[in-house]
Write a structure and sequence with these properties.
mainly alpha, Zincin-like, four-stranded mixed beta sheet, 18 helices, globular
Length: 435
């Protein structure tokens, strides 16, 4: 532990945030684990309405196993971050300064390669999660061949996207810092934001088909009901597709992709098998609610504001020479955007972690609002309620998490909270209220 004695101020700050994040994760996991164990052998009141004792036992076992695995993941991630901070990052730039150039292409390629190399370290954990943990509870339908094929595709896709983004950012900094040195960071942020929106349009058309087969919905009854829903809500879409999610997992879901006239409804084939038509319509109505209530633009605006702050911080760091020195990176890289970007990508999470309760609070608020919308759009609370219960049972989602865990981590309210809200929404709409 000799390196801890000679830490710089920046290294000490990052270690502080890494340690506090690690301790917070461990404490929250322990609290959740303890709460689950307390109710492990008796189905709580309310849950027994839709879960049998056997299903409850399986749900609690699954939750406990995931928490046990998260203990190891958290320890591994913490130790890896410390190793990267004190050894890999300085050595990476020291070797680079000796053997490589400093142009935009070299910087973009090497930065992307470093990130992708670290991502591959997680492959054994991902394999264990898929073929041991998920398989133990009958969720895994993926073959080893398909898993390897997916990882190869993800790697090359990551190479293309990361290299493109890094080239874009390095080029924008090189050019804009010359012609608009005071505002380059805002212009670069805007350009990257537009690029991300562009990716969101292209993703369902060119990337999703690389991993899954999307076919038009061939159930005329369900298709007609969904079209009626879209007509009632004024939701425009291009088509309704079914995704073969069952070839990888038994988990189910539904989502939208694209913007404007390019919007598509995508249903997992597992969702269609598990639910009635009315329940599927209620799930889709919930997703429509997110669009009609403007949740997507609101989240995009919020992410843009945080991105602006991120780029402003980069600008403040680049005007000084202390940053690279504090990370034991050779002085030749002082004033270059690459080391700053890489440091934010690698260690920014231990700082933004403390903002996650705010983001999740907003997300849970939006979920309640989308549930309200689904009740109004379908004219019933029963179908949405039964759909959520089926999703909870089929996905083994633990319905009674520790309040602190829910507050800190969960983007969706617990099932009891959603049921209470759905019933209140039904009463309001039955009384003639519109919101």
């Amino acid at each position: 532990m000799f390196f801890f004695i000679h830490m710089t101020v920046l290294q000490s700050t990052l270690v502080f945030f890494l340690c506090t994040k690690f301790l917070s994760e461990q404490i929250l996991s322990y609290l959740n684990f303890k709460k689950i164990k307390q109710n492990q052998f008796s189905v709580p009141r309310g849950v027994s309405d839709y879960m049998t004792p056997k299903e409850w036992q399986k749900c609690t076992n699954y939750s406990c196993d995931k928490i046990r695995f998260s203990y190891f993941e958290t320890i591994f991630s913490f130790l890896l971050s410390i190793f990267v901070l004190f050894y890999l990052l300085p050595i990476f730039y020291l070797k680079w300064s000796f053997f490589m150039g400093h142009g935009i292409w070299e910087a973009s390629l090497l930065t992307s390669a470093f990130i992708l190399m670290l991502q591959q370290i997680d492959l054994p954990l991902d394999w264990y999660r898929q073929f041991k943990l998920e398989a133990k509870f009958d969720f895994n339908n993926q073959t080893l061949k398909l898993w390897i094929t997916d990882k190869i595709k993800e790697f090359f896709l990551g190479v293309i996207l990361l290299f493109t983004i890094m080239c874009l950012l390095h080029t924008l900094y090189a050019q804009l810092s010359l012609y608009a040195p005071k505002y380059w960071w805002a212009l670069a942020c805007l350009a990257l934001f537009v690029f991300q929106l562009f990716l969101m349009v292209l993703w369902p058309r060119f990337v999703m088909p690389l991993f899954n087969t999307l076919t038009p919905l061939n159930d005329p009854g369900l298709r007609d009901q969904l079209n009626v829903l879209c007509d009632k809500t004024g939701f425009e879409m291009q088509e309704i597709l079914v995704m073969d999610g069952s070839k990888r997992s038994s988990h189910s879901n539904a989502f939208f992709t694209g913007f404007g006239k390019f919007r598509k409804i995508v249903l997992f084939d597992t969702l269609i098998k598990q639910m009635s038509q009315n329940e599927i319509v209620s799930v889709v109505a919930h997703e429509v609610g997110h669009y009609k209530l403007g949740h997507i633009p609101k989240r995009l605006c919020l992410s843009f504001i945080f991105a602006l702050l991120f780029f402003w911080l980069i600008d403040q760091i680049l005007v000084s020479s202390w940053f690279t020195r504090e990370l034991d990176i050779p002085d030749i890289f002082s004033g270059e955007i690459g080391p700053v970007l890489l440091t934010f990508i690698l260690f920014g999470g231990c700082i933004t972690y403390w903002l996650s309760p705010l983001s999740n609070f907003l997300s849970r608020k939006h979920e309640f609002e989308a549930d309200d919308y689904a009740v109004w759009a379908t004219g019933s609370s029963d179908h949405l309620s039964s759909a959520l219960k089926k999703l909870s049972v089929k996905n083994l989602s633990y319905p009674l998490p520790h309040p602190l865990v829910s507050f800190f981590y969960h983007s969706h309210p617990s099932l009891p909270e959603r049921e209470l809200n759905i019933n209140k929404a039904h009463e309001r709409f039955a009384d003639g209220q519109t919101s």
